[in-house]
Amino acid sequence: MLLRRVCIACALFVASAEVAGACDTAGFKGLDGLRLHRPVPGPIASGFGMRQHPLLRIPKFHYGLDFAAARGDPVQATAKGRISFAGPKGEYGNLVMIEHGDGLASTYGHLSRIGVKEGDCVGPGAVIGPAGSTGMTAEVIVHLEVHVQGKHVDPAPVIDDTPR
Ligand SMILES: [Zn+2]
Question: Suppose 107 and one of 24, 58, 130, 145 were both cysteines; which one would form an S-S bond, judging by CB atoms 3.0 to 4.6 Å apart?
Answer without folding.
Answer: 145
